[in-house]
Design brief:
By secondary structure, the chain is α/β, with parallel strands linked by helices. It is built from 7 helices and 4 strands. Strands 2-1-3-4 form a 4-stranded parallel sheet. The longest helix has 12 residues. It is globular and about 40 Å long. The protein binds iron/sulfur cluster. The site of iron/sulfur cluster has 11 residues, from loops.
């Protein structure tokens, strides 16, 4: 039997009171960035915030997740849809991959349509690197609307 994949989620601290509803729902539904786990068993073994700008908890939280068996860290979609999106997200990903040798996936649940609409007007994701970063959670309009 295939081994269970253990993951951790790090959210943007501005959403620190979030109960994780959309992340957990999308994990269950295997949509957005979690579509890579279709047909696979996944266990969430850690959930925390970045600690607030400039993300002090990024330095330590992955270690605890790794001790709990996590091999993948997901940055919650809030990091790329907030106003403004986290300016450090690319750096955080490189840091965790380098220091902890864990895979980092940018995103969790599908981008909600209301955020999509505003960011399209603002031109937030026009740069090629941003287009790459939103790919796992862009999905289609119907899915985005269901996560509004
Ligand atoms: S913008 Fe980035 S560093 Fe600031 S609180 Fe959000 S995730 Fe953390």
């Amino acid at each position: 039997m295939e081994e269970k994949i253990k993951i951790g989620i790090i959210i943007c601290d501005r959403y620190r009171t979030c109960a994780g509803g959309k992340c957990l729902r999308s994990l269950r539904e295997r949509v957005g960035a979690f579509s890579i786990y279709k047909g696979k068993e996944v266990e969430l073994v850690g959930y925390t915030t970045c600690g607030g700008c400039p993300g002090g908890n990024i330095e330590y939280a992955p270690e605890e997740m790794k001790k709990n068996g996590a091999t993948v860290v997901h940055f919650a979609t809030g990091m790329i849809v907030g106003y403004p999106p986290c300016p450090y997200v690319g750096y955080f990903k490189k840091f965790i991959e380098e220091k902890y040798k864990m895979e980092v996936v940018i995103g969790t649940h599908p981008i909600p349509q209301k955020y999509y609409n505003i960011h399209m007007k603002l031109g937030t994701w026009e740069m090629p690197e941003w287009r790459e970063m939103i790919k796992p959670t862009l999905t289609d309009e119907k899915t985005r609307l269901s996560y509004d």
